[in-house]
Structures are given as C-alpha cells and as structure tokens.
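Q: Could you write out the predicted structure for this multi-component system? I'm mainly interested in how the pieces pack against one another.
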Amino acid sequence: MEKTDAVAALAALAQDNRLDVFRLLVRAGPTGMPAGAIAETLGLAPNTLTFHFDRLRSAGLVSARRDGRSIIYAARYERMNALLGFLTENCCEGLSCTPARKRTGVPA
Amino acid sequence: MEKTDAVAALAALAQDNRLDVFRLLVRAGPTGMPAGAIAETLGLAPNTLTFHFDRLRSAGLVSARRDGRSIIYAARYERMNALLGFLTENCCEGLSCTPARKRTGVPA
DNA sequence: TAATTATTTCGATACTCGTTGAAATATGGA
DNA sequence: TCCATATTTCAACGAGTATCGAAATAATTA
C-alpha cells in the first residue's frame, strides 16, 4: 500500500460516523448490509450516509452492489489489512514497539 | 482504547505531513528527534511543524521534552499499538478478515 | 546585558468537511 | 402507467484544517 492510500484510508476512518459505519459493516460480515438498514441502525440521514459511503468507498474500505431497490455495502477486509500492514511495516523496523496485538478472531 | 481516542489518533495520522513526521519519529527510535532536525529533514516551516506536533501530541502519539534550546519529540509506541489493537479488535470478530500481518521487526 | 538560536504563538487566509433540506433518480409493485 | 420505496444529487451553511508571515518567548553564548 502506498502512503497516499494509507492517508486516504486513515482519513476515511477518522470520523465518528464513518468509523461506526465501517465497524458495523465489518461485523455484518462479507454479505454486507443495505444502506437503509445502516441508516436506521446508526440513526443517520440517508443523504448524510451517502456522503460517508463515498469517502469509505473511494478509500477502498467498502464495496457497493445493487440488490433490487437497495444498495448493499460491505467492508473490504483486504484493504483494512493492507492499512494495518502499512502501519506496522512502518512502525516496527527493528525497534522495540511491543506489538502485543491480541488475536481474538478466527483467521481465515 | 476508547472510540474517541481511536478517532483522534486516526485523524492525527490522516495527513501527509503528520504521517511523515510520525514515521520519521518511529524510525528515530525512543530517543526521538529535535524539532529543528525534523523540520529540516521534511522541509517544513517550524511554525507549521508546531501545529502538527500539537495534533500528534494531543492524540497521544508523540511526546515532547526539552533539551537545552531544542525540544525533542519522540513517538509513543504504546499508543500506536493501542490503535492497532483497537482496529483489529473491531475488525476480526470471528470473521474471515485474513490478517496476513507480516512481522519484519524485532518484538520486545 | 546584548546577541543568537530554537521553537512557539498569533492573525489571516484559502480550502475542506459534515450536515441539512429539497429535489432528482432508479427500482419494483398495483 | 401510476405510486411507493430506496438511495443519490445538489446547493448552502457553519465549523474546522493546513499553511504562511511576523512577532513573541525560552535558552545559550559572548
């Protein structure tokens, strides 16, 4: 991942509502969630949400596909991991950065 | 780490010059670097740099101490790792998030 | 004390951001 | 076709951001 992409991804996540949206999508799994359900869950206006989706999408953090009248948004895990990779790559270059990254999940 | 802190840290890193500053400090090691040297290395005006230091510092990502006339800034690795922890914690909750986090560094 | 060096503070400016309300577009059903 | 549902587009607004130049502050040296 390039520095430009990292800045874009960081900026996309650096906002309350967007971080909520992304976390919700991450928990929703690969299937994703329709925009309306996200709006209702988080109590956000649909047009506001569109604005945030655009940010997340152009940062490559979420994908969108149409299903009937709904548009389903889903987290792009690879991108998230690329960001983490970039950050750790530039963090722990032979230094005592004490990773201590706890892994509670089930790696694929 | 709280969500508020995560947003603050992400916002602090989500800017070209600040990301440069932080990466430089991370590579400089625990000893840190004087503000002037950072300014020269990155080609930034000292007052602009002060602005960015403030952001990084109030996000808890760097520390500052005085040494003579210079002020030495240093990366706070724990904070960086807390952020990574927060992101992975909220990322891989039993999902196929394919971590693939390569570890090139030397963990403490 | 006066001059020098290192960094910060202040005021101003152009720009971007997040939100809102109203209107537009797309899809599916009667 | 007409209507309802789902989402996006558009224009506008207040608030915050990144940068600059000039002046102020802190620490060292002559």
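A: Regarding packing and overall arrangement: The radius of gyration of chain A is 15 Å.
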